[in-house]
């Protein structure tokens, strides 16, 4: 990012330093404040609530039984608010940005007559890569069988710790059926925007974009210009948000690591490891091969150029919050044409979730192993299909996939309250799966760019 080089240190290096420093200090704080009897309770809260809107009262209740330490105060009054302000700044640009960039993207591609082809390519790429991700996850979890190693004692402890939270979540069942599709068409586009109902917003943006291509250019150009203007304004605001990104990222990571129940990692280590290795394989092997072959770009250069996207996704755990950065970096660093970036990336942030699909597949099979539910090959195929469908439907916010995961568990006969077992480690998995989700979108944009005959910036020169 050109304008981001300040005082000699490029912005993405500052963000990376903030990430490392925040994690190191957070983990130190975590150790410093033990024993913290109520830590897991707070952790559950942090892991499952979308970061935006985490009420202070909820934090206060979670702390109530133990006298707060200075670290608690530091988190409540400094780290948490700073992290939230950064996240909110990103989120506030999401709806205008998705709407404007997608409708303009569609209008431009439509005018060039290649919307249908690009749309199909994009969708096929999304579905195939997500399917590959789930298959990798399932192959690993079925081979290693981490669920068999969970003792009754651990299971009971985790159920006791997170059971109430799990029951609350499973108490609001998510139904999946014909209505799910009907609701993609909103009655009221403004209500869809207000509620951040992304699939509905995308639907309206697609309609508006296609409609713009049906109007004579002299009359549609005012609307197109207005939408382009909205886009540009949002990009400027995102630029400001990214200036405070080092502070925001530091605060977010500190808050998570200082509150992370590190002791929870031990019994679930195998499960966590499978999700993480699966994510790494999908990202650094499968997607790298696709980048090298389909986008004809060195994966090393690719990953170096998208560092800022990876760090933002990792620290926000939200594809939506990362979208502004994804668009900006893809255009500036990779040279993705704005029409393609504006079309593929907002769609990807909502629909293309490689990491989420993999996580869901692994988690369903892991919990089936823990609860002694035998999943036949047929059941596993259902898991693959449902993991892909629910990853498409999951909201790009922290923990966005959990309600849908609960639904898949119920579908294949695994007790949905079993989600209690993984709630404590979900945040760390969320950070990693979101990173893969977003990188998957960028590879899609790079592939579409190449396949449409455009050049990509394949050398290092654009990076400051
Ligand atoms: N946090 C993920 C995302 O925004 C969604 C999820 O898997 O919970 O991409």
List all distinct small molecules, including ions and cofactors, that are bound in this structure: aspartic acid
Structural class: mainly alpha
Rounded to an integer in angstroms, the radius of gyration calculated over CA atoms is 22 Å
Which CATH architecture of the largest domain is right?
Orthogonal Bundle
Helix content: over 70%
In this structure, how is the largest beta sheet organized? none
**Low-pLDDT windows of residues:** 1-6, 36-64
| First-last Cα distance | 7 Å
Secondary structure: number of strands: 0
N-to-C SSE string, H for helix and E for strand: HHHHHHHHHHHHHHHHHHHH
The average pLDDT value, as a whole number, equals: 86
* Strand content bin: under 5%
Model description:
The chain has 464 residues and is an all-alpha fold. It has helices at residues 11-32, 39-48, 56-63, 70-112, 115-144, 152-170, 178-182, 189-194, 198-213, 217-243, 245-258, 262-293, 299-305, 307-316, 319-334, 338-351, 354-370, 377-393, 402-411, 420-451. The chain folds into 2 domains: 2-33 and 68-462, Proton glutamate symport protein, CATH 1.10.3860.10; 34-67, no CATH class. 77% of the residues lie in helices and 0% in strands. Helix 1 (11-32) packs parallel to helix 14 (307-316) and helix 15 (319-334) packs antiparallel against helix 16 (338-351). The longest helix has 43 residues, at 70-112. The protein starts with 10 loop residues before the first helix and ends in a 13-residue tail after the last helix. The relative contact order is 0.18. Aspartic acid is lined by residues 317-319, 353, 356, 394, 396-401, 430, 433-434, 437.
């Amino acid at each position: 990012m050109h304008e981001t080089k300040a005082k000699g240190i490029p912005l993405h290096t500052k963000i990376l330093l903030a990430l490392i420093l925040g994690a190191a200090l957070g983990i130190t704080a975590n150790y410093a404040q033990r024993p913290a009897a109520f830590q897991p309770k707070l952790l559950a809260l942090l892991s499952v609530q979308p970061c935006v809107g985490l009420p202070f009262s909820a934090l206060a209740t979670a702390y109530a039984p133990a006298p707060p330490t200075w670290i608690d105060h530091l988190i409540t009054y400094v780290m948490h608010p700073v992290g939230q302000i950064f996240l909110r700044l990103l989120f506030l640009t999401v709806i205008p940005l998705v709407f404007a960039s997608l409708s303009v993207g569609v209008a431009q591609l439509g005018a060039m007559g290649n919307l249908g082809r690009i749309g199909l390519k994009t969708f096929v790429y999304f579905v195939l890569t997500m399917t590959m991700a789930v298959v990798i996850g399932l192959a690993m979890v079925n081979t290693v069988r981490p669920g068999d190693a969970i003792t009754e004692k651990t299971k009971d402890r985790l159920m006791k710790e997170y059971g109430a939270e799990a029951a609350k979540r499973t108490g609001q069942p998510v139904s999946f059926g014909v209505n799910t599709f009907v609701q993609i068409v909103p009655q009221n586009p403004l209500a869809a925007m207000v509620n951040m109902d992304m699939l509905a917003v995308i639907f309206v943006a697609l309609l508006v974009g296609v409609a713009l291509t049906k109007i004579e250019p002299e009359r549609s150009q005012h609307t197109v210009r207005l939408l382009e203007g909205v886009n540009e304004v949002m990009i400027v605001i995102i630029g400001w948000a990214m200036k405070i990104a080092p502070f925001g990222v530091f605060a977010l990571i500190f808050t998570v690591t200082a509150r992370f129940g590190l002791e929870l990692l031990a019994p679930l280590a195998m499960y966590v490891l499978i999700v993480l290795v699966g994510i790494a394989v999908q990202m650094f092997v499968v997607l790298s091969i696709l980048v090298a072959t389909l986008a004809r770009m060195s994966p090393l250069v690719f990953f170096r150029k998208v560092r800022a996207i990876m760090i933002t996704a990792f620290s926000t755990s939200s594809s939506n919050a990362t979208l502004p950065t994804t668009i900006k970096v893809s255009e500036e660093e990779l040279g993705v044409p704005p029409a393609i970036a504006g079309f593929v990336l907002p769609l990807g942030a909502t629909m293309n979730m490689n990491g989420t699909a993999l996580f869901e597949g692994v988690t369903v099979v892991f919990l089936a192993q823990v609860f002694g539910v035998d999943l036949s090959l047929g059941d596993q195929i259902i898991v693959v299909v449902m993991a892909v469908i629910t990853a498409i439907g999951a909201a790009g916010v922290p923990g966005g996939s959990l309600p849908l995961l609960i639904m898949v568990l119920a579908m294949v006969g695994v007790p949905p309250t079993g989600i209690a077992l993984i709630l404590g480690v979900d945040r760390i998995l969320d950070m990693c799966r979101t990173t893969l989700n977003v990188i998957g979108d960028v590879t899609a944009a790079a592939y579409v760019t190449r396949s449409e005959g455009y050049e990509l910036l394949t050398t290092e020169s654009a990076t400051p």
